[in-house]
Design a protein that fits this description.
This protein has helices at about 35-45, 50-55, 70-80, 90-95, 95-105, 105-110, 115-125, 130-145, 210-220, 240-250, 260-265, 330-335, 340-355, 365-385, 410-415, 430-440, 450-455, 465-475, 490-520, 530-545, 550-560, and strands spanning about 15, 20-25, 155-160, 165, 175, 180-185, 185-190, 195-200, 230-235, 255-260, 285-290, 300-310, 315-325, 390-395, 400-410, 425, 445-450. It is α+β, with helices and mostly antiparallel strands and about 575 residues long.
Length: about 575
Amino acid sequence: MRNLEGESDRGLLRAFFDRRLKFEFHGSRITSDAGLLAYRELDEALGLTTLAGDVIADSRTGKNGWHGIIGLLRQSVYGRLAGYEDVNDADRLGRDPAMRWIVGGRAVERGGASTSQMGRFETELLATNDNLAALADLLGIWIDQVNERKPPKIIVLDMDSSVSPTYGDQEGTAYNGHFGCTCYHPLFVFNQFGDLERCALRPGNVHSAHEWRDVLDPVVARYRNKTLRRYFRGDAAFASPEIYEFLEAEGFKYAIRLPANKVLHDSIAHLLKRPVGRPPKEVRRYYANFSYRAGSWTKPRRVVAKVEWHSGELYPRVGFIVTNLSRPAERVVAFYNQRGTAEQWIKEGKNAIKWTRLSCRSLRNNAVRLQLHALAYNLGNFMRTAKRVFQLYWVDMETGEIVDLRLTRTKFLEHFANRAPCLVALEACGGSQHWGRRLRELGHEVRLLPAKMVRPFVGGNKNDAHDARAIWTAVQQPGIKTVAIKTEEQQAILALHRMRQQLVKFRTAQINCLRGLLTEYGEVMPKGRAGMRRGMAEALARVSERLPAMVVEALREQWARVIPHPADQFG
């Protein structure tokens, strides 16, 4: 049999001893990114990437292009969502069956865009002034599209800057003394749901609040004519009278950290004296309110102070917040402290989406990539927060009134606690067992319906309201099958079985991987865990004479993780 690797012969690979035997390689039909299809389904339901075709201009003049703007954007965004932070993997992703269906169009049959095509798309087509501005606006367009289905009653904006390390002679790179590295200094605005409202890439040596208006003003403008309560939080970098006046003019309530100074400390001098007596082990907190006007302010504003005395510390921890909120000082501090969640969202963007991977030489091209990473982050966050509410539907038997009610998770149990015992039908899904048990505790009769029993009754496009009406219709059908509600002990046993299955699956995969690696060096191991255990020590001893010590040690460590103890742990 010639051409064992099948590189020089494009025909079928056959064995010469029997031409009826042929070898086919189907690696391009296997995907490890099938989870992206769920995000593509959400994208289709909301029409997110389709909206991009209306705002991004296609400046290409050729007529032989395989992929449209929407397809290229999908490959770029979904690739980052899957963990491929730049276009280096575009060739392989273009052959991935999941990615081909996500891109759509000709990609289903011919494959996605190549590395060079994606590079030109991101660094040439999207890098124009109009398209870069459209990308920045697309974040807000997506959020508005999602909020159309579930309009929020409150919007809380958190603004913060971050660090994106740079390497080499990249345009805009500069040393930042606060972060202690050469970097870019991007600026982000999040809402309370974790959606990234807007972001901008800036040189590394600018102030944290540099160009704040360019980032914040478009976000504020989108909510200007909507009926909702508006709030803003920021750290001490945004303690500027221009920001205060802007927010007050726009009707925003705000809580912004205020840098300490002698005048502020003198205003709470009575709280800074060390308490008499042995200090307790628990933290002692004190709050104060007072009016304060800095020299650059046009009017006095309310300042809230918090003083904390910690055991073992000689001096107190003091913080000041300038605010126009009317709530008590403790609640103002609690509201401000919630802005720390935005810092966690920035860490998610760094670690999960890798939006610090900005490796282009041009600052503009890196700005494009940051916007693409931001779109990928928002798509992932939309999936995470898709179910923030419960949709209720019923018909009052006495009055015939049709009730279509939307409740948050915090109000769901409160609603049923105040109702007389009734029949409650839920679709069997993640969390339905928990809610079924809780509703039973309130005295209600609960029935869980399999999704396949509900699907035939869904009318119109799939959304929460139509699903709730379909569940109400399905539960009234005679002979409808239901799912048993399990106790927590029963679910715990099932969880143990699932975890055991995952551990066995992982162990089998790792053993097969080790067997394959050893085969490359002529050590053919017997099948089965027991056979591997009997022969592994001798095999490692033999290869240790020929292979680098680092490789042998890695094999030993991997084997130790797979079989940590001679006694079998998983049966």
